[in-house]
Amino acid sequence: MSGGLFIGRFQPFHLGHLEAVKFILSKEPAVIIAVGSAQYSHTPENPFTAGERVEIIQRTLRGSGIDLTRCSIIPVPDIGEHRLWVSRVISFCPPFKKVYSNNGLVKILFEEAGFDVEPVPFFNRQVYVATEIRKMMATGGGWRTLLHPSAVEYLESIDCERRLAIIMKEAGPDR
Amino acid sequence: MSGGLFIGRFQPFHLGHLEAVKFILSKEPAVIIAVGSAQYSHTPENPFTAGERVEIIQRTLRGSGIDLTRCSIIPVPDIGEHRLWVSRVISFCPPFKKVYSNNGLVKILFEEAGFDVEPVPFFNRQVYVATEIRKMMATGGGWRTLLHPSAVEYLESIDCERRLAIIMKEAGPDR
Amino acid sequence: MSGGLFIGRFQPFHLGHLEAVKFILSKEPAVIIAVGSAQYSHTPENPFTAGERVEIIQRTLRGSGIDLTRCSIIPVPDIGEHRLWVSRVISFCPPFKKVYSNNGLVKILFEEAGFDVEPVPFFNRQVYVATEIRKMMATGGGWRTLLHPSAVEYLESIDCERRLAIIMKEAGPDR
Amino acid sequence: MSGGLFIGRFQPFHLGHLEAVKFILSKEPAVIIAVGSAQYSHTPENPFTAGERVEIIQRTLRGSGIDLTRCSIIPVPDIGEHRLWVSRVISFCPPFKKVYSNNGLVKILFEEAGFDVEPVPFFNRQVYVATEIRKMMATGGGWRTLLHPSAVEYLESIDCERRLAIIMKEAGPDR
Amino acid sequence: MSGGLFIGRFQPFHLGHLEAVKFILSKEPAVIIAVGSAQYSHTPENPFTAGERVEIIQRTLRGSGIDLTRCSIIPVPDIGEHRLWVSRVISFCPPFKKVYSNNGLVKILFEEAGFDVEPVPFFNRQVYVATEIRKMMATGGGWRTLLHPSAVEYLESIDCERRLAIIMKEAGPDR
Amino acid sequence: MSGGLFIGRFQPFHLGHLEAVKFILSKEPAVIIAVGSAQYSHTPENPFTAGERVEIIQRTLRGSGIDLTRCSIIPVPDIGEHRLWVSRVISFCPPFKKVYSNNGLVKILFEEAGFDVEPVPFFNRQVYVATEIRKMMATGGGWRTLLHPSAVEYLESIDCERRLAIIMKEAGPDR
Q1: Statement: the pTM of the whole predicted model exceeds 0.80
Q2: What is the distance in angstroms between the Cα of A37 and the nearest Cα belonging to chain D?
Q3: Which structural domain range is residue B80 located in?
Q4: CB D33 within 8 A of CB D4
Q5: In chain B, whose CA is at the least distance from the CA of F77?
Q6: What is the CATH number of the domain that holds B57?
Q7: Do B68 and A72 touch (CB under 8 A)?
Q8: C-alpha–C-alpha distance, residues C73 and F39, integer Å
Q9: H helices within F31-159, ranges in order?
């Protein structure tokens, strides 16, 4: 059941991402949600582990009545070399024929590799922005309405606001 | 929906693995099938990519009437340092409480990290052995009855016998 | 002789760090001084090699009359994945039970792994700041009074001011 | 035929670099042009692959009538640890006795390893600046006169302006 | 001047490799000699550094009257993941259209990526075997007639027999 | 206090190693005991973590009345490229002038880098062999008399016999 690839870091997966998945499922028999930069966590850009992100996505899809049997959620670690990245994605994901992305670099890398790349319509682009959501978490602001309630429930169980507040303030032991 | 972790390389996922998944699902609300050594492929020990292995597992589960919504299939790349491997698995997988494995090293590594590790009953242990299945593929022998028919169909579509025959014969460009 | 862990990059180890070691030794039978980001050197953030940092620490402790037999000085290279970093520290260091740190990320990472984390009292926090010391070295300013005289002597023998001046000015061949 | 080492990222190789090669060939029997940061591409700092950079250099030298048999063009991937970088360069390049560089860090790293390091005279330093050339490419500006015509021809064949415009705008899938 | 790719580890480059290069140059305007596993040295399988191998190849080609301006000699480090290896080769090498190889794995990997792969006729296959040449070096046997005299001269200057004798006997510090 | 370098994997540190340290301390003001292959553990060749090995060495030296203030014990992770390994050792260790080793490869690598390398007299070479000690641990045999009693006490506290028995039997999750 070959499908469309939807790739992102999903830090975190919000309702805009959910709309994109619905859009792709309206066009394709299946969707592969590739969770990029999978090895990173506890940084301002990548606060959540791949496993936490998978959990958030599963809860959001399940809670929204999406048919999970049409969705593969696959962590893909960065390779650190853009020219090899498409091969890394292919290596980790079940077969796909088309790529859905609004990112220009994703577009040229996959096009250079011979793939069709289609945009996904933005759902309320000004509101659903992961960068802003991470900042709201760090400061305790109104991020809850931008995610699915079951994702919010999980994020509260791991005390995401405390984690974000800390990692946005300190460079951390690896620096 | 926290579940049990079932980890292996699944080169390839055979009917013995399927029985193990059924066993875990009889005990747990969900199973996380972690596809280890995810970055390797085209070697005698690891002939298939993580993506190909995910595809084989999805087809096998779907073809066997397993409820896919209770299963997460997660590629986990090796870290190359055993002492760090449990953290790598935790980092890539959604939350789990118990580990199912018959491998002694998996057992001590997860036990050192504070996890319960339970064995899975072997299903026809003399017959369902991935190492033997790979050898059979390389020589064209009777591997087809040891995998699910829809996995066999996929493996034939990627000409697995030719690949195995070649990689069992040659060290390859990386050596 | 299990002890307390004191972790930092120590670029360089100054008199504030020395006070922290004394504080830990007043509470614990032994201290493990873990030299983080051990593989890096010759950058603005990490000008000195792990070996040079070990030498500076040994000279400072010896010159201050600290009982060196109660101190382990252990380089710990970064792993690049925060979720695996505590396991890396454990893997490289002799056993420890408690962690001493004022860094929020160190605190949450070790707490998530089940460790007690205690702060160390800052010694003259406005004065003893490694970032400022590195800048002073680059511009020839008054860094000498902030380090132990035997550390200063060693740093002069490797011409630290010239190195800092250069690496603060140029991105270097690796960029 | 031992020669002089000329190391850079050559993103891209421009007429100032060409003059430097001519200068070195006036002093040495041969030149090794080491293409640093070889593994990176499709980023604002490193837009071109090592292979593309080798092609640009070969075309520039050939088009300028330089004796190619006196030139080795060698990609050298970064090691990520400055203290090991000189060994990495030595490991990848044919033997050399002298290093030509205007970069301060290259100078101290090679000097610490016992090499003579000589500066190369800048050719029109205000004009031939790779950073500026990359910006001009991104905005379609006047970069063509700063490179050799046969390099320009190649860069147009791979649509360098589109690539630069995109990668200067977006962080890319690896971030 | 797009050409044919000839890839190997060249440990060391012998007269059989030279004949293969001549064959490719009889069919193509240019040849790219990709020196694989470039980062390794001082092991039984890979005794010589990439730089030493480049030097041996340059001397052999020059000493045989081959037109060096038609040859690119490019070190390519292993990536450790076969599925990504073709992308790595493409990333490091100037453009090529056809691949010449007798290795089955090289053949399937490049064919999967859409390349034509042609065999090279073996020149005295029983005699020119790099594995045997390395063994002869370790025991002081008759390897000299199997390499070009100017390669032999260089290998003697770096005392290859001593190196091979030692590394064939001991596992080394990295094991 | 510059000293002599003594490098090994110390899996585990036995009474033969202790004699070597005593020998070096009879010749040098200080010794740097570099614990190589520091990142590995839980394998047949490298069963113990670097931290465990440091603990064993510290207990052995302390228990033998060695002046610990003359000893630095430094974990050094493998770099995977022999030609870079000496630089890695230098980068991680405090300054040293002479190297003590009986390993041929260590000898040529350090000699190529300009160091004096001296052998250490073997102490009962047939008896004190780490490879044999690991096998004895796996089978419960008489390894205890070959290590210092306080090292034995520690190794029993981490149940080394169980670990060795398991890792000698199974390839582990990383394979």
Answers
A1: yes
A2: 6
A3: 3-169
A4: no
A5: B81
A6: 3.40.50.620
A7: no
A8: 17
A9: 50-63, 82-92, 104-112, 130-139, 149-157
